[in-house]
UniProtKB/TrEMBL annotation:
<protein>
    <submittedName>
        <fullName>Fumarylpyruvate hydrolase</fullName>
    </submittedName>
</protein>
<dbReference type="InterPro" id="IPR036663">
    <property type="entry name" value="Fumarylacetoacetase_C_sf"/>
</dbReference>
<dbReference type="InterPro" id="IPR011234">
    <property type="entry name" value="Fumarylacetoacetase-like_C"/>
</dbReference>
<dbReference type="GO" id="GO:0046872">
    <property type="term" value="F:metal ion binding"/>
</dbReference>
<keyword id="KW-0479">Metal-binding</keyword>
<keyword id="KW-0378">Hydrolase</keyword>
<keyword id="KW-0670">Pyruvate</keyword>
<dbReference type="Pfam" id="PF01557">
    <property type="entry name" value="FAA_hydrolase"/>
</dbReference>
<feature type="domain" description="Fumarylacetoacetase-like C-terminal">
    <location>
        <begin position="27"/>
        <end position="223"/>
    </location>
</feature>
<dbReference type="GO" id="GO:0018773">
    <property type="term" value="F:acetylpyruvate hydrolase activity"/>
</dbReference>
Length: 229
């Protein structure tokens, strides 16, 4: 097969302790999955889960320096548990959901909060607030057999060494298994899909020159720096 233009390189995420990489197909993100974060954003914690997406090539390797995104003056950090789908399926039973997960990692959902606020007010999609270039810094993935049950564990984010976000996976309204099962009723999940499962309270702005580091107990942390200029 030939193409009229060169195809884009395959987006991928590092695998901890291996030279192999996890190929990324799609990135789904769960909105409002920690009660305190829902309240700090002025929303109703009783709402069912909803999803937005990021392009696969939004992934950024841990240790990278990235430019402050264009078209915003209010860039926010959101630390999240990331699930890597290894076996696809539709209408996956809750009891079987984690069997479809290859591994897990730590991600940062970078958000152009000012653009998101405009979109919310106008009832428009969040694509340009969430799915912009290099908006998904991500640490190395760990196979599920090494990652634990992912039902509890400290989740945190620091900026320049100062704690900004801290919580526990046990505080997720919709568990990792819930997210996989529910999302599979809306789309057919496929190998290579990533699910970013929501963020705890404490989201805030970051600026040029700031260093963000985020982690979850038992998983490799992710660290990125915003370029000074």
């Amino acid at each position: 097969m030939s193409y009229v233009i060169p195809p884009a390189p395959q987006a991928s995420v590092a695998v901890y302790g291996s030279s192999d990489r996890f190929p990324v197909r799609r990135i789904f993100c769960v909105g409002r999955n920690y009660a305190e974060h829902i309240r700090e954003m002025g929303n109703d914690e009783r709402d069912p889960p909803f999803y937005f997406t990021k392009p696969a090539d939004a992934v950024v390797e841990s240790g990278a320096e990235i430019a402050y995104p264009r078209a915003t003056s209010d860039l926010h950090h959101e630390v999240e548990l990331v699930l890597a789908i290894g076996t696809g399926g539709s209408d996956i039973a809750l009891a079987d959901a984690m069997d479809h997960v290859w591994g897990a990692g730590v991600g940062i959902d970078l958000t152009r909060r000012d653009l998101q606020a405009v979109a919310k007010k106008a009832g428009r999609p969040w694509d340009m607030a969430k799915g912009f270039d290099r908006s998904a810094p991500m640490g190395a993935l760990v196979p599920l057999s090494q990652a634990g049950g992912l039902t509890s564990g400290k989740i945190w984010l620091t900026v320049n060494g100062e704690t900004r976000q801290t919580g526990d996976l046990a505080e997720m309204i919709w568990s990792a298994a819930d997210c996989v099962a529910h999302l599979s009723t809306l789309v057919a999940l496929a190998p290579g899909d990533l699910i970013m499962t929501g963020t705890p309270a404490g989201v805030a702005a970051v600026g040029r020159g700031d260093v963000m580091e985020a982690g979850i107990d038992g998983l490799p942390s992710v660290s990125v720096k915003l370029a000074a200029s």
